[in-house]
Amino acid sequence: MIGFFSVKAAVSSDPDKIKTTTDVFSFLEDSSYxxxxxxxxxxxxxxxxxxxxxxxxxRRFN
Length: 62
Known about the structure:
Blueprint lengths: L1 H11 L8 H10 L3 H25 L4
């Protein structure tokens, strides 16, 4: 989401349109399905954390 807003600001050549994480989460929360979207984002972050921990534990280097 932050990347999307950064690209959007770059295309429009307006650096004031770059959003912080607080702005992005406020944008998600204020949308019509805010709690669902935040839940999906949280689930994705948790899944990525589990993936990263599993990768660190079971990765083999030759």
